[in-house]
Amino acid sequence: MQNPLNNYQHNIRQYTTSAITLGHKLQELSVARIAAFLGSVIFIIIFANARLVGALIFVVPICVFAFAFLLKHYNRVAYQKQHAIHLKEINEDEVLRLENKLSHLPGGQAYSNPHHPYVADLDIFGSHSLFQLINRTTTESGSVCLAAWLSASAPKAVIVNRQEAVKELAPLLDWRQDFQASGMHHRNAKSDYNKLLTWLEKPVHLLPNRTKYLAAGITLALLTTLALLYHFIYAYTSNYLLNTLPLLAMLLINYIVLKKLKPVAEEIIGDTHQNIKILGGYQSLILKIESGKFNSSLLQQLQSVFGQQNYSAAGEINRLKKILEVSQLKGTKGNFGNQFYAILNMFWLLDIYWIIRTEQWKNRNSSYLKSWAAAVSEFEALSSIAGFAYANPTYTFPEIKTGPCTINFVMLGHPLLKPESRRSNDFSLRARENIAMITGSNMAGKSTFLRTVGANLVLALIGAPCCAKGGEVSELKIFTSMRTQDNLEEGISSFYAELKKVEQLLQLVQSGESIFFMLDEMFKGTNSKDRHRGGFSLIKQLEELNAFGIISTHDLDLADLAGKHGLVKNYSFNSEIRQGEMIFDYKLTPGLCKDFNASELMKKSGIKVLDYVEGV
User: Are both 426 and 375 inside the same structural domain?
Assistant: First the structure.
């Protein structure tokens, strides 16, 4: 079995060394660039002063080429250095995850919904959450995809395909981390991605009449060129003003045409810089996917989205990047751009050409871009789950069952607890048993156990491995009622909030869906008499509806009554007092709880608990 911690620590050392080495190389290249620039200036001055025109014609291109070569090499090494830094950071994050230190990682709070059937109760999002433990995405759309998976159970066929893909990706540590680091160079936000989609969905302007616009542009460019040649040949011979008129006339016509096109050009390139950044992020990820060789059907299906025969999504994005980079030279309102472009544009109407090139790209690829982003997002989500699987080699993939509701786990533990403090339990519940009822003393582990089952069900039903030695799970939808609270803004008490959750549960069960529910301390917000009567009534109603789930309670009489009527299967967590200390073993045992410790805990808190109270 692999040792993830050793591998992560080895990678940290390796990438730290690489980053330092590349940093030294960057310094050397910086010196070389300065030397090349100064040398070029000196040579040009010497040759210019000596009137050596031939030497200048020979030396200037060489100097420009040398400087451009050094600049390109510098940028490549700078990218490699940043890539090494990203890889080091990725491995440092993995070590922190193994140490259960998650506070620095994005919690995905934006994806949490207080009205969702389970995410708030099972720590799916937020501080110290499953999302922090699993998420290794770098695009906002990838993060959204993973959040959507964690918020909804998938059908069996989808789960099995994901499991197959995750099992293939998990051992590919270098590929996965390189994939993640590639995306970290171009982090983007959901709003940026939406801007890109909005830009792509805007209607084209020149493309429908492409032939007309190109013909007009070429004609005007040729006439302007002829006017320019005429100006150079005849302007200084006689009647300068008259011989300049053709050129001035053509420039005026070109100006009118460009002014008419200006709103279109500015609309296209207005968000160019952001679009290039977003596309760069997707392109680097797509390149990694396109170059991979995969065996699982899901990975092959996702890979096929990006290229078939001579078509390459990364190549298409690269073409658009080049178009936008050139178009960006024009500048926009409030930004003068490149003055050389402005001069050339006035003579040869470059705007027409670049607008049509951009609209051609949009026309050819805009329908594909959403599928590219969706495929990249799904790849990122699968790679995240694979990273989670690799980091936890003792976790197992449960078998997904069809037919009657089944949950069966061997040595089930909570994935958000440290291994040394985690207590694992076997747990099995099948359709013929329907409802498990768990009693136990305070702090014995009832609520934690419910969350343990819930968190692992979420993992199982998205295709991830579970914190267990083995398991079987049916296709289910999860529903919980654990952390109901007062809502002052809406004027809702915790008891009423719980009733609304129960109403929601009954509606789901009556709809015929396969629901697994978890209720923690039913009706805790009301008096003991109503809680007892209401609790038994709800259990009976759920049993008659063949509902499937777990209920925890302190009410021993309620659990005993429900057990005697054959409505539930009783389990318990117990504790004992040794030498005045409360001892918890956190082991799930069949039957009712044999002891309760609330009075002892009250005494430890300084309350003078009476031995006898009238009527109690």
Answer: no
